[in-house]
Design brief:
The chain has about 300 residues and is α+β, with helices and mostly antiparallel strands. It has nine helices and nine strands.
Length: about 300
């Protein structure tokens, strides 16, 4: 994530005091993403990732800690929260919530191959199945209310043709009834920079801070819009087929999911078009920032509307 909160070695050394993780050696900010502050923390024992939450309240965060712990115990490759001597994972630094997790092996890939795409899809399906017996729930931070509010904020910045597209899509999504589709834990942000690979071996999913209880196939749509497209936002047929076949080998779609699939692809495109528009027009000042191009998901949305 971008570095919005600057930490020193001495500050982190003091913060680590209650943890049994060895002596701090290095601290390095991670310049990717746009929501929280992340640092690599290397100690005499291991390597970790320290996250400082810039937008979440403290009482919102136990859900994510418990979820990652649950998924780790069920064999899903994801960061494991590190607890201190009192078995507490969440703390504060600079008066902001902070959490340290295990550092997974691998790095993100910019041009995934079919084997990697299949690994992502299978692991996502297994995550959805593992989440079915996780009984805590968290609302979708990027749900209907957020879509409407964010659209109101960015609408005056857009050209008339974009305003029309946005308003039309909001009305379409508002009219959908997805209540009968399977719900459960979704990652909500399974982009290429949130999946690590060591060669073709999947190292794990990271950044669970948009995870929530929502439509499982919506999570699949978010991932498909990211992992199976070309630069223009069009689906690459071979990649999409590989992704969907691999996912459904672990968790087959229901009839209702198949019917609503095109609409879910549109909802996923709208969500990220809106968030990128907001970050583009209302950037948050930070030491290191990385805003993504909103035009990409405008193209994705236009392409998905053709499928409906």
């Amino acid at each position: 994530m971008s570095v919005f909160t600057t930490l020193s070695l001495d500050e982190v050394r003091q913060w680590l005091a209650p943890f049994n993780v060895g002596e701090l050696h290095t601290l390095r900010g991670i310049a990717a993403g746009i929501t929280n502050t992340n640092y690599f923390v290397e100690t005499s024992q291991s390597r970790f990732v320290l996250t400082v939450f810039e937008k979440n309240d403290f009482d919102e965060l136990p859900y994510f800690v418990h979820l990652m712990t649950h998924l780790s115990r069920h064999g899903i490759p994801c960061p494991k929260p590190i607890t201190d001597q009192n078995n507490t994972a969440l703390h504060r630094i600079h008066s902001k919530p902070a959490l340290m997790v295990s550092c997974l092996k691998g790095s993100d890939v910019s041009q995934p191959n079919v084997k990697q795409i299949e690994a992502v899809a299978r692991t996502l399906a297994r995550m959805h199945v593992a989440g079915l017996d996780f009984h805590e729930q968290s609302h979708n931070q990027r749900g209907q209310g957020w879509r409407v509010m964010t659209a109101q904020q960015v609408m005056p910045k857009l050209a008339p043709v974009q305003q029309h597209l946005l308003q039309e899509e909001l009305e379409f999504q508002h009219g959908l009834d997805l209540s009968r589709l399977p719900h459960g834990v979704i990652h909500g942000d399974l982009f290429r920079d949130n999946v690590l690979f060591d060669g073709d071996v999947l190292g794990g999913f990271i950044d669970f801070y948009y995870a929530c209880h929502d439509v499982l196939a919506y999570d699949v749509a978010i991932a498909a819009n990211e992992w199976c497209v070309d630069a223009a936002g069009n689906f690459v047929d071979e990649k999409l087929a590989a992704f969907m076949n691999a996912y459904q080998s672990e968790r087959p779609f229901t009839v209702a999911e198949k019917i609503h699939w095109p609409a879910l692809l549109r909802r996923a495109a709208l969500r990220f078009w809106l968030s990128r528009l907001y970050d583009f027009y209302y950037p948050v000042a930070g030491e290191l920032t990385h805003a993504k191009d909103p035009a990409h998901f405008e193209r994705v949305l236009l392409n998905r509307k053709v499928l409906t």
